[in-house]
Write a structure and sequence with these properties.
Length: about 170
């Protein structure tokens, strides 16, 4: 019969102490990640608060915690309040459904403002170009719907414009 060899003699004090694991993350980041690992919930005010936890979870390669983070972030108000940052994050992690959802909330944004230009530079050029093309396509479709006499009859007909100006000389 074979058995495992006996461990070398270890001092009793060292054997009962808890081993020390050195980590270089901040306490808040570590406690949030461990809370998520246990199945807890987290609510962030902005997406910048989630970045350190996302980096840690990615570094530790924890797919279960990453899926919880994905669920928490996508169900929070962050995709509506910070859609461009969330779009960049979703593209980075390959969350296509979340990126598509965030792209819908970018219509109200001015892509030429300095704060949005900085974020667009952080997104890979291919994804940023797709977002711009999607935005341009949606704006074009919206203008087309506004100009359609069947959808929006007020002011889209030349006849209406001419007859209304004859009735009211001040127009």
């Amino acid at each position: 019969m074979l058995t495992l060899p006996a461990p070398p003699s270890i001092s009793r004090e060292r054997a009962t102490s808890t081993p020390v694991i050195d980590v270089f993350e901040k306490d808040a980041t570590l406690s949030t990640a461990l809370n998520l690992l246990r199945g807890g919930t987290v609510f962030w005010k902005s997406i910048q608060d989630a970045y350190p936890v996302l980096e840690l979870v990615e570094k530790w390669d924890c797919p279960e915690v990453m899926s919880r983070l994905r669920k928490h972030l996508s169900s929070s108000p962050i995709p509506r309040e910070q859609p461009l940052r969330f779009y960049a994050l979703a593209n980075y992690f390959g969350w296509t459904d979340e990126a598509r959802q965030a792209s819908k909330h970018t219509l109200s944004l001015d892509f030429d403002s300095p704060e949005h230009v900085d974020i667009l530079w952080q997104i890979p050029q291919k994804d940023a170009q797709l977002l711009r093309e999607l935005r341009n396509k949606r704006c074009w479709m919206f203008r087309r719907l506004l100009d359609s006499p069947t959808r929006f009859t007020g002011g889209n007909s030349c006849v209406d414009l001419i007859t209304s100006s004859r009735r009211n000389p001040y127009v």
